[in-house]
């Protein structure tokens, strides 16, 4: 698996590498700057209202949709849909609002051509990445494979879109070349599904959210702080459905792991899917229980006392730089959905998943939204 052709293409286009592709001191300097912009508590305080605005707009859009297309008595209508396309738009709209300080209008019934093209580019880029990672690049070039051309032009479009916005003077963040919205819609779908098929859990989370929202006086950050089950829901979702399925490291010196000698430079991967479902690590691992994360670190969980159980965003200095954006975006979305809708599922059978670049449902689950 190689990222080299992508890195070379970016160099040709003078797009720079970004933290994702850099290493060593070069990486550290950029990363420290980015941490200030999107990871530190001051930055989080600044961007939460932006995410909250998008989450509330998403729910208004859903309210209108349920009212217009749903069944049942007016004011209490239900609509069963595969919400993935809407959630994907939400993830893009929310990330762009934070990164560029600009809304791109994806909830509109007729988004601008520019926004549509941006969505197509992101979709195209995501769809073409997995095969390109595993097929020999020279062969693809030799065959004149359209896959690579499509991939490269999708990235070009994403960069142009970002650069235009940055040029317009919005200085939220220098373009991070993020793996950003990847998977953004996906794990939200998994979360809605688990809440839908676990009505008691859903009710418990909603109860906490109602109380915290009522007490927060419209301050979204305060509301999240007082509703820890929301964060637990995210962790629980990513435990069972880790969108990035592995975390990788290359030890800088020889180490011994579980009595295996690992030479320096060997790629070592933690496989998050089996980890999250292991009875050696989590008590009753298949139970969706957001409350398990609120308990003291070791209570209700098995194994030694390392705390390295929630690894979906990686760990340490190289952990996901978009983590605070993704966590808060998701919590705010769930908060507003739970305040406005009851969720249920037409089928509570386990979702079959497949792993391409990220973990995806074989068939996205359908969710019934009923207005409260
Ligand atoms: C559910 C959402 C997301 C998940 C599960 C996720 C997961 C991850 C993981 C596992 C890593 C590797 C961490 C490590 O090796 O320790 C990573 C890195 C990264 N992520 Fe995310 N990510 C998400 C959303 C985002 C968002 C929204 C952005 C940007 C806005 C982003 C930008 C990045 C970047 C730039 C890196 C590379 C950081 C570096 O190497 O310094 N991610 N992500």
UniProtKB/TrEMBL annotation:
Keyword check for Transit peptide: yes
EC number assigned by the record: 1.14.15.4
InterPro entries to which the protein is assigned, alphabetical: CYP11_CYP27_families, Cyt_P450, Cyt_P450_CS, Cyt_P450_E_grp-IV, Cyt_P450_sf
Pfam hit, one: p450
UniProt KW Heme keyword: yes
Cofactor: heme
Top EC group: oxidoreductase
GO cellular component: mitochondrial inner membrane
A single GO BP: cortisol metabolic process
UniProt-recorded Gene Ontology molecular function terms: heme binding; iron ion binding; steroid 11-beta-monooxygenase activity
Keywords recorded for this protein, A-Z: Heme, Iron, Membrane, Metal-binding, Mitochondrion, Monooxygenase, Oxidoreductase, Steroidogenesis, Transit peptide
Residues the entry annotates as binding heme: 320
Subcellular location: Mitochondrion membrane
Family designation: Belongs to the cytochrome P450 family.
Protein name as annotated: steroid 11beta-monooxygenase
Organism, scientific name: Takifugu bimaculatus
């Amino acid at each position: 698996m190689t990222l080299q052709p992508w890195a070379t293409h970016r160099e040709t286009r003078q797009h720079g590498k970004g933290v994702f592709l850099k290493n060593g001191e070069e990486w550290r300097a950029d990363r420290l700057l980015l941490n200030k912009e999107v990871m530190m508590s001051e930055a989080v305080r600044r961007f939460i209202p932006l995410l909250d605005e998008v989450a509330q707009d998403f729910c208004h859009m859903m309210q209108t949709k349920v009212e217009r297309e749903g069944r049942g008595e007016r004011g209490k209508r239900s609509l069963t849909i595969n919400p993935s396309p809407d959630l994907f738009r939400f993830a893009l709209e929310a990330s762009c609002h934070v990164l560029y300080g600009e809304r791109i209008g994806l909830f509109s019934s007729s988004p601008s051509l520019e926004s549509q093209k941006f969505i197509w580019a992101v979709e195209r880029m995501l769809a073409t990445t997995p095969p390109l990672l595993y097929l020999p690049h020279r062969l693809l070039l030799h065959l004149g494979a359209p896959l690579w051309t499509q991939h490269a032009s999708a990235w070009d479009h994403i960069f142009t879109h970002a650069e235009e916005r940055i040029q317009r003077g919005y200085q939220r963040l220098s373009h991070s070349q993020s793996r950003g919205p990847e998977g953004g819609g996906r794990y939200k779908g998994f979360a809605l599904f688990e809440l839908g098929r676990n009505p008691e859990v859903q009710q418990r989370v909603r109860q906490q959210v109602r109380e915290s929202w009522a007490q927060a006086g419209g301050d979204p950050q305060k509301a999240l702080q007082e509703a820890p089950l929301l964060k637990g829901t995210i962790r629980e979702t990513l435990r069972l459905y880790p969108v990035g399925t592995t975390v990788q490291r290359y030890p800088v010196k020889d180490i011994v792991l579980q009595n295996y000698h690992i030479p320096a430079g060997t790629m070592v991967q933690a496989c998050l899917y089996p980890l999250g479902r292991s009875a050696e690590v989590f008590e009753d691992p298949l139970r969706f229980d957001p409350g398990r994360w609120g308990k003291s670190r070791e209570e209700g969980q098995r194994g030694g006392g390392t705390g390295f159980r929630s690894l979906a965003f990686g760990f340490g200095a190289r952990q996901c730089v978009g983590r605070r954006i993704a966590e808060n975006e998701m919590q705010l979305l769930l908060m507003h959905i739970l305040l406005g809708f009851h969720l249920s599922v037409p089928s509570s059978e386990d979702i079959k998943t497949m792993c391409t670049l990220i973990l995806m449902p074989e068939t996205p689950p359908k969710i019934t939204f009923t207005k409260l």
